[in-house]
Amino acid sequence: MMIKGDRLSEDIKKGRTGNLYFIYGKEPVLITMYADRLVEKAVGADADDLNLQRLNELPDPELLSDYVEALPVFADKKAVMVKDFDPEKPDAELSKQYLRIVSDVPETTVLIFYSPSLDISEKGMKSKTKKFIEAVDKHGIVCSVDQMDPEKIAELCVRKAAQTGIVISPEDAMFLTERTGGQMIPARDEMSKLINYVGKGGRITRGEIEMLVAKQLSASVFDLADSINAMKREEAFRIIDELFLQQIDAINIMGALSKTFLDMYCAKLAKADGISPQKAAPMFGCNVWAFSKKIYPAAERLPVSYLRRTVSALSEADITLKSRPIDQQTVIEETVVKLFELRKSLRS
Predict the structure, then answer these.
(1) Residue 246 region by backbone torsions, left for phi larger than 0, else alpha for psi between -120 and 50, else beta
(2) 10 in the same domain as 101
(3) Structural contact between residues 131 and 87, judged by C-beta atoms closer than 8 angstroms
(4) Are 232 and 116 part of one and the same domain?
(5) Which of 48, 73, 173, 242 would you call most buried, defined as having the most Cβ atoms within 10 angstroms of its Cβ?
(6) Could you report the per-residue pLDDT of 141-161, keeping only the tens digit for each?
(7) Distance CA 189, CA 195 (A)
(8) In the listed set 93, 121, 145, which residue is the last one of a domain according to the structure?
(9) Do 66 and 123 belong together in one domain?
């Protein structure tokens, strides 16, 4: 059975669990969390080494088979976890042995392959990975964990604060999430830092977030692009100064800015072809939430000729940065001036 992370979470809550899983996707924290929750459901939170075996990457097939086929000790079930399993790494003979193991997992064993560090693309999936997924799908459950929407990350931040007796409003939790680029791991880490700062019984306000949490590059660069598009010169150069004060490499800034405008250009073309942002985002390798909520609406207000020329100008500036020694901040600032001139000449 092929399912998504939300469905797996619901199944675990309701006790609808199986005995074979392969979990992979875009959210390492969630992948690991789901694997741990499956184990807890199967053998309890305090399982000993007799009923819980933890293996890594490519375990010896004979050892894995022994663990899987062994009966639980003074319990109904046992669990075997294989972390960071990559189906492409074993040779043909090893692959056959792994496929044989997943085809016959006893009812008394829960076998979980989970890969928080493995990036499997649904498009162009390699042959060994495809065969492994098909085998697990036939005999168990394959779960692909999508990147979490910022709204859900914000909800988790509110819940995490509440568990420690701390209050953060949903609006401020969303502000934190967007400031960390709409990504779960940075949001989680910054939330822990804020919790430690305000202490039990405290309240996390927007002021603390602005003071303690530096914006992720993607968030800052989107604000920079937004300022350029809105012809807000002072704000744009303030953002550039902040980025260099954070000692962020100019090539990284240029790369992020180029990607932001390229995404807007792609969004503009998608809209012209009547393609929804939800369908267009995966086509261009973009996060669905960010594409739908930020990129698509921003592109909608801009002329396609302007976006085309900004992408070209940024590409030229990127070559300049990488080809010869030069004052990097000056290149960024001169490029932004060019973009302001383009925006002024091509305003809709």
Answers:
(1) alpha
(2) yes
(3) yes
(4) no
(5) 173
(6) 999 888 888 888 899 899 999
(7) 10
(8) 145
(9) yes
If one counts every other C-beta atom within 10 angstroms of the C-beta of residue 196, the result is: 10
Structure tokens at 4: 């998504």
Cα 332 to Cα 146: distance, rounded to the nearest angstrom? 34
**What's the whole-model pTM score?**
0.67
- Which letter does DSSP use for residue 83 in this model? E
Q: Do 203 and 162 form a contact (C-beta atoms < 8 A)? A: no
pLDDT in tens, 309-344: 999 999 999 998 888 777 888 999 999 999 999 998
Cβ(52)–Cβ(89) below 8 Å: no
My answer on whether 206 and 173 are in the same domain is yes
Domain count, the chain: 3
- Domain containing 34 — which CATH number? 3.40.50.300
Pair 58, 98: CB distance under 8 Å:
no
Buried b (16+ CB within 10 A) or exposed e, 51-75: bbbebeebbebeebbebbebebeeb
Among 212, 246, 266, residue at a domain's last position: 212
Domain span at 38: 2-145
